[in-house]
Structures are given as structure tokens and as C-alpha cells.
Amino acid sequence: MSTDSRKIRVAVRVRPFNERELEGNPRNIIKVLDKSTLMFDPDEDEDEFFFHGVKLTHRDITKRVKKKLTMEYDDVFDNTATNNDIFEVCMKPLVQSVMNGYNCSVFVYGATGAGKTHTMLGNETCPGITFLTVKELFRQIESLSEVRKFDIGISYLEVYNELVMNLLTKSGPLKLREDSHGVVVSGLVLKQIHNATELLELLALGNRNRTQHPTDANAESSRSHAIFQVHIRMVEKKTGQKRAVKLSMIDLAGSERAASTKGVGIRFKEGANINKSLLALGNCINKLADGLKHIPYRDSNLTRILKDSLGGNCQTVMIANISPSSLTYDDTYNTLKYASRAKKIRTTVRQNIVPSNVPKEFLVKKVNEQAEELERLRAKVADLEEQLRKKEQEAAAAAPGPSLALNATLLNTWVSRIDSCYASMRQALQHLIALKSKEKLLNMRVKLKEQAETIARIVTLDGSHLNEDIAKMEASVDRCGKQVANQQADKTRWQERFRQSLRSRNALRKEIAQSELATVLKGILTGKDAEIEALQATLYKEHVLQMSFTYAQENKLWHNIMVLSGDIIQQNYLLLRSMDRLDNVTYDKLKRLVKLNQRQRGVTFFDDDCKQQDRNDIDLSSNSLDDIANLSDCSEDAVDFPPDGEDGDGSTMLSVVGGAAGGAMKRSKLNDGSESEPETCSLQGDSAKEDTATDRNIFKKPKMVSRTMSFKTTSLAGGGILSRPPISRRTPTKQAKAMGKTTATTTTTATVSHRLKVPRLVVSQAMMDSLSKKKVPQSPSGDIADKNKLNVSDDSSGIGSIANSTFDICSNKDSETESLFSNVLVESNVDPQVLDKVLRRASMKGGKMTLSVSKENRKKSPKRIGKSPRTVNRSTSRTNSSASSVINRYRMMKAKDGQASTSGGTSAALPKPRAANNNFDSDSDRNRHNRLMGIVKK
Ligand SMILES: Nc1ncnc2c1ncn2[C@@H]1O[C@H](COP(=O)(O)OP(=O)(O)OP(=O)(O)O)[C@@H](O)[C@H]1O
């Protein structure tokens, strides 16, 4: 139940001069300034008064000084205002409040003859506000009759000489009593009515019964206070909510001084009582205006009855009636003073809702229903608004020759849509590129760490700290891997947002194409696209700069390492040479090092594809927005890792094919058992040139490279055997899994290794014997393997160097290749067990022998367990190394045996091992070598 504090609304109505007043030629003491202001006792405009030819300023020089009081009220009605005007302004809102459940009252105040009864009741031609109010009341009741049930009862009382009389029944005086509802007139029976006519009839009856006597001021002076009340009881049909309200309309008796009525006898007594009650009313108004707590309502029956209207739960309107005539100067002044005081009175109003005994559940149900209804209506409003908007747009689009104003509005709408679309695109692009850039930087760091790790395996003084260092590096790589994995979700999210913004832009473009402003808007779109491209270029530039900086740092480090290494190598070389301990293997390595240093392309470490891949490492993606949007997986442009083949032990992973595509291509070729030349980078054709170049090197040595057994560069899979797959592959996204294509690359290494058949060749003694008889094995192509070829294989140190490598042997059949290779090894007196181990790691395909890694030899580093899911290609390297070491151990053992047999003078069954520079087939070769190397045996 809401409560509200409101002031009494005070209106002043000035009646016209009556005939009697006009006869007396009175002065107008009221000047209405506007609808809420009047001036009491203003200057006279043309009121010149001459006495003995002299103009006097005051006509009534004995009585008054002009007050010129400006007074403000809620409403001021001048003498032209009709009862209908009063009703419209003061009473209509009051009727509305009554229907909303608030008690309301209106009372008219003023001296006798000021127009109170005229305002209240009016006449046939000009009905008063009572009639008009009741009419409006019934109009509203009828309009609400479907949702509410009304019970209406009326009472009409008069307070005459302090007696309360019922004007409708002519019964005796009634007593007033007070209960919890306020002041109640005992024995008052409400007359129930059903329509306005009944009400007006009863009103007329009451008026007839009202005490009226002619006075000097008014021929039909009302000598009592009349109180007309309409009691309304409303019941909401739906909810059962009840309201009981009361509208009181009070026509007070004249507030004049006794002198003005010139009453004597009964009239004097009447006047005294009237004055008594009005004096009490005045007191109450004063105290209420001052905000006092105690209000003397009980001083008169009138104030008791008006208690509710003045200080209770009621919205009250007071209409002060005044005459403009100077003849009623004091009465008018008093009335205006009362009205000013009454303005300050505040009443507290609240809706008079009668507590009902409707069950709570019913009310809850009703509330829920209304909430649903509200939601439904809201949705409908939203729908209608949308429809309206569309219609407006359609109308705007369809209207021939739209006005400039319309175009401007339309253009603004389009521009704001374009702006918001491109803003979201810009944001998504910035985030996406930042994430990709970060990912690439991380990948690059991993790559560099891997390289460092590879070098660390080689450059270790005694190996004591190697494991520790490797573990640290692995942990660092893992951290980078985790960072990349962590930002995958973010990247996917921004990718999706970017795609979404592209879709929105395309949709917008289509809409714009249909728009009447298409030409202008297309230009704006082009500009926005250019902005996006510029932003993209800026972001790429930043990324490339960052990458370049990192590379530059790394390069600097490598440079320092190389300078130091070169120094050490030079010293060692000189030392070995002076000791005549420079063997072929070491010499070959040094030779390659020189070539590398000279940037010679004879030996290619990365094929063209790989170089392209390297370029791609820096490139974020293609430059078009669409390409960025279509980047479904970072792995598409992730960093590929260089091979670990250059592990410094002379083993021969000379080059790798980089990139997933290259790997896939290779894989397919391996699977079908054939392999074409373009994928390989053979040394065969370039060997002459290389040798010529090498001869000019500081490491002078006779040319000893076999021409019949050519080294073939290959990669078992994308990125090579030892290449590490991109980090992003280690934590494949769902998308990547679904695609299933990229994962193929991930597992290329393992898959290929698994698929390779590892022939187990058991070399029996008989076989060895038979093979040992063949001095020169016949190649399947018909060529006779020359001596040089045998020399390479024959050299036990060469076995070590060929481990983990791929060799071309001139044969189209695997069996022949295997046989040929076996022959070479057997002829080299390789121990059968070693031979078996070597061949177990070898696979023959397409005339090519590959020493690969068997699955059982793969080991997972315990440090990897529980860490990132990265494939441990490093184990491949270890296994290869172990394979090499088996052979090398064998070689050393043989070397020892050879020394022992030489020193012990016993003739060994095994061939005499060669000295470091004893790998020559003839003395001329050796001499040539010594000549070139500057070794002069003394
Ligand atoms: N605004 C008005 N326009 C025209 N005539 C008016 C107006 N106000 C009052 N009169 C006339 O003035 C006379 C006195 O008015 P009314 O009876 O309403 O005075 P009153 O204030 O009720 O006096 P009392 O207190 O003695 O009853 C009536 O004849 C009435 O028609």
C-alpha cells in the first residue's frame, strides 16, 4: 500500500461584480495576474478622483492604504471562469484519485455571497462542480464495470448551529463519535444509488432541506455548512481486491463578519456559531500549516467532520471564493490569508485497500500470471518495434528521391554498423596475430634450444654434466611447449571471432549492395578494408622484427662459438698432422667443415623445400585476411625443426627434406617402394667439383671418395628421421584430430620406422667363407664394384660412419642390395655378430639401404613422462649413436687386436687394420696424399 505526502491544493475563484456592488461603484481590489497569481488591492488604472479641482491619490482617504499584495496559489480563476473550468482543473484529477482508491475532499470557503454555493451547486444553466464531478465519477465507474464491482452510497449532512443534521432524511441531530476509522456520524445511513440520476435527485432533495435565509449580503444565504459525501466500495473482479473510498464535497457557510450581515436575534446567533466553527477551522488550518502535532479538531463539529479532509488520509482541494469588490475588502483579505495558510498544509495519502481474505496461493498465482502476461506483452512490443524499424527502413529504401535528411539518417545508421563490424574485426585480428606471433617465437626458441642441445651432446668435455645440462634444456623446451599448448584455446577463440567478424562483414557487404547508398558505402568499406590491411602489415612487421632480433642474438652466439671452435680445431688439426694421426674420417669431417664455412652448395643441408619452410617460419601467413581466417591449425605454419643428423660423429644424415608436405611426399614414395631422383640430393654428380674445391682447402688430403657407392641424401619422413615435429602437433587440437591429415605428419617418423622391414640376416660361417672368396662383388647392374668402393666399405671405421645412413647401391632389387652390402661387410671381415646388428638396423628398398632405428631400441626419457607429449626423437639419435658405437667399438677392438698381433708377432686371421693414413689402395695414392698434406716422412 503506497503512501504519499501531498499539499492541499488551493484555488482562488474571483466572482464577477453583482448588481448591488455595481450600483455602489466599488473599486476592484483583485487583479488576476496569471493562472496562479493575483494581486490584492492593486493600483487603480483610471481611477482619478478630484476634490476642489485637485487630483487625489486615494479616493477613500479615511480607510485604507493600498496593499498591492501579490499572492500565489495553485490555481487562480478570474471572473470569466465557469464552473466547468473549475471542474476540469481541480476536480477531474480528484475523481481519478478516487478511482485509484484515495480519499478526496473539496471544500469551498469564503464570505457570504462570494460564490461558494454557485461554485458547488451552480444552477440549471451552469451546473456546479458537484454535478460535474458526480457525472464524471459515474462515467468512470461504467467504464470500469467489467473489471470492478462498485457499491455506491451517499450522505448529505449539514452542520447548523453546531448540530449535525441529515439532509436526506430530515431526522434529528446526529452525534459524532470516533473509532479506528476516524470520525463517524452515529446513526447515519448511507443512501445507496446505482446511477447519476439517482444521485442528483438526492442532491436536490438535500439542497431543498438545507437551511437558507436571506441576508443583507446574499438573498439565498446558506446558513449552515453542507457536507455531501459519496462512499464508494470497489471490488476487483479478478483478484478480489477491495477498496473503500470517500469523496467529500463541503459547502461552508459564509465566513463574513457579523457586521456585514447585519444579523440580529437568531441570525446573530447563527452568525456567532458559524463564526465559532469557522474560527475553529481557521485555528486548525494555522496549526496544520505550522506543522504542529496537536490540532484542535474537537473545538467544533465542523472541524471534527473535516478532520480527515484537512489532516488525514485525503487529497484535498480548497476553493476560496472572493468578491472583487472593495465593499468586502476585509472579508476578501481574510479569505485570501486563510487560503495562503492552507497552502502549507500537508496531508498523507494512501490507497484504501481493504485487506481481503483471498488465499495467498491465489494471489501468488495471479502475480505469476500477470508476470507472464507482462513478459508476453514485452516480447510483443519488442517484436512490433522491430517490425516498425524494418518497415521504416523499407519505406526509406523504397521512397523515391529521399530527402537529404532521410539520407543523412540512413547514412549514419550504416556508418555506425560498419564501424562496429570493423572494430570487432580489428580487435580479433590484433589478438589473433599477437597469439600466432607468440607461438612462432616460442617455436623458434624451442628450435634454437634443440640445436643447442644437439651441440651440447657433442661439445662435452668429459660427459659428466651432460645429462644435467640436457635435462635443463629439455625442461626449458617443455615449458615452451606448455606455453604454446596453453594459448591454443585462446587462439581458437580469437580465430573463431575473427571468422565471425568476416562473416558479418560479408553479410553487411551484401546488404550494402542492395542499399540505395551502395556507391557511398562501398567506398567506406574499401577504406575500412585498407585500414585492416595496414594494421595487419604493421603487426606482421612487428613480428618479423622480433623474430629477426632473436635470430640476430642467436647468430651472434653462434659466431662466438664458431670462432672459438675454429681456433681449437686448427690447433688439433695441426697437432694430429704433426703426429701423423690424421685419419680419413677426421679429415673428411674437417673438409666438410671448411666447405660449410665457405658456404659451398655442393653439399646441401636443406633442400629447397626446406628453405621455403624456413621462410615460412618467419612468415605468419599469407597476407590476405581470408588466409588468416582459414588458418585452421597453427601447425600449418609452425616451425619445423632442423635435423639432428649433424651429430658430429660423422654419421651421414646429410640433408633432410623439410616440411610436412615434403615428408608426406617422401612417405608415399617409401610406401610404394620407389623413390625418384629429384627428392634426393646425391653427392655423386658433384663430387668432382667438391673435391676440386676441397683441394684448395687448408685441410689438404688426397681425394678418396668412392664414386661407385654414392651417398644419397634422404629423409625417412617429413623433417627427417631426427627432425622434431612442430610443437603444436604435440598437443593436437580437436580440429587437427578431426582433420586427421596433419597428424599423419606428426607420426611420420614413427610410422615410417615401424613400416620398414628390418631384415635379419644371419651370416653363417659357410656363407662367410663363400663370400670371402669373392674379391669383387658383382653389382646387379652389371658394373663391377671397383676397388675404391670396396675400400670404403672395407674400412672398419667406415662402417661407423655409415651407420644411420642411407646409401645407394646400384641395384633395383632389395635382395640384391642386401646381398651386395652383406658381401661388402663380410669381405671387410666384419664380425658376424656386428654384421647381424648392422643388418638388423638396415632396410633395403628400391636399391637403397637405410640404417634405421628399430622400434625396440627407442627409449623414452623418464623426464618426458608426465610432461609434454612430445615425441622423443632424441632417442632415435641415441639409438643411432649406440648402433654407431657398436661398430666403433668393434673397430677399436680390431685395431687393438691388430696392434697386439703386430707386437706379439702372431699372425691374426683378421686383416691388418689400417693406420690413420693407411686407407690407400696404392703407394702412389699414399704418396700423393702425403704430398698434398705436406707430410714428409723422414
Ligand atoms: N461566478 C459567478 N458567476 C455568476 N454569478 C455568481 C458567481 N458567483 C456567485 N454568483 C452569484 O452571486 C450570488 C451569491 O452567490 P452564492 O449564493 O453562491 O454565495 P455564497 O457564497 O454561497 O453565499 P452564502 O455563504 O451566503 O451562501 C448568487 O446569486 C450567484 O448566482
In short:
This protein has 938 residues and is an alpha+beta fold. It contains 31 helices and 26 strands.
Description:
The protein is α+β, with helices and mostly antiparallel strands and 938 residues long. Among the domains are: 4-25 and 81-349, Kinesin motor domain (Kinesin), CATH 3.40.850.10; 360-398; 410-594. Helix content is 51%, strand content 13%. The protein is built from 31 helices and 26 strands. The strands form eight sheets. Strands 2, 8, 9, 10, 11, 14, 17, 18, 19 and 21 form a ten-stranded mixed β-sheet that branches. A hairpin with a 7-residue loop joins strand 15 and strand 16 (221-222). Helix 14 runs antiparallel to helix 15. The termini are far apart. The model is unreliable at 258-262, 601-611, 613-811, 852-880, 903-920 and 929-938 (pLDDT under 50). The structure holds adenosine-5'-triphosphate.
